[in-house]
């Protein structure tokens, strides 16, 4: 068993999941993978099961009854990891927007450099995004600047979803008190890590938009992020934000 687990939430990722898993398992450093599938009607879960024999003890599947949101999928994966002996737990998308090779760089930032959270950052060295229309790049960049301004976190990519956590971070944060399920989940996890005085590093990565499958972005997710940040900041000012 590896000491590092990559948690990958999925919903209708049949076009990507097998190739992604094979890519992760071909890396020079060994990672285990937990796929958290929300009962994908396209057979994503079945595709993962077909790899059980080839990658015995390295790939796992947590099946949920219905689509419940990104945040709840990750929390389920985090709890699964904490019930086992994993020391480094990762968030990663299933659509190849996050490059498997960068897992090693995030791991090294935590394991070798001593950081508690390593963020695969699109904006720490400029704007490193491929295949997004300019409107979406601008929206994402402005969202991160907005979160920076409100929370005062020194993080350039506050909505990033490519992350390595040291186990101690997830043990410290009360996962039952995470309130947001969309992209605000990413902000909430970073903010609570920051408020807990953990060491955070942004590792520059190139984000490439998916070429297969459909994006899960929605207007509801965006509004949750905008108003959720204000709510978190307000609560933190009065020491009423549960960590």
TrEMBL record:
One of the record's GO molecular function terms: dolichyl-phosphate beta-D-mannosyltransferase activity
Transmembrane segment boundaries: none
Biological process (GO), any one: glycolipid biosynthetic process
Family as reported in the entry's similarity comment: Belongs to the glycosyltransferase 2 family.
Protein name: Dolichol-phosphate mannosyltransferase
A Pfam short name: Glycos_transf_2
Organism, scientific name: Ulvibacter litoralis
Domain Glycosyltransferase 2-like span(s) in chain numbering: 6-173
One GO term describing the cellular component: membrane
Annotated keywords: Glycosyltransferase, Transferase
Keyword match Protease: no
InterPro entries: DPM1-like (IPR039528), Glyco_trans_2-like (IPR001173), Nucleotide-diphossugar_trans (IPR029044)
């Amino acid at each position: 068993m590896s000491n590092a687990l990559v948690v990958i939430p999925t919903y209708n990722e049949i076009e990507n999941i097998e190739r992604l898993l094979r890519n992760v398992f071909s890396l020079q450093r060994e990672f285990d993978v937990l796929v958290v599938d929300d009962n994908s009607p396209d057979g994503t879960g079945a595709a993962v099961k077909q790899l059980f024999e080839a990658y015995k003890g390295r790939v796992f599947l947590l099946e949920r009854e219905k689509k419940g949101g990104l945040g709840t999928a990750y929390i389920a994966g985090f709890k699964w990891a904490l019930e086992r002996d994993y020391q480094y737990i990762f968030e990663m998308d299933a659509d190849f927007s996050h490059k498997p090779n960068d897992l090693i760089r995030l791991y090294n930032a935590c394991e070798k450099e001593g950081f508690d959270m390593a963020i695969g950052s699109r904006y720490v060295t400029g704007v490193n995004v491929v295949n997004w229309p300019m409107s979406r790049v601008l929206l994402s960049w402005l969202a991160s600047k907005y979160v920076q301004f409100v929370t005062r976190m020194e993080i350039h990519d506050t909505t990033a979803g490519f992350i390595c956590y040291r186990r101690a971070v997830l043990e410290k944060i009360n996962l039952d008190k995470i309130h947001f399920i969309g992209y605000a989940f990413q902000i909430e996890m970073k903010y609570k890590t920051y408020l807990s005085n953990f060491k955070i590093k942004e590792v520059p990565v190139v984000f490439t938009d998916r070429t297969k499958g459909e994006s899960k972005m929605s207007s509801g997710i965006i509004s949750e992020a905008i108003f959720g940040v204000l709510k978190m900041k307000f609560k933190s000012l009065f020491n009423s934000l549960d960590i």
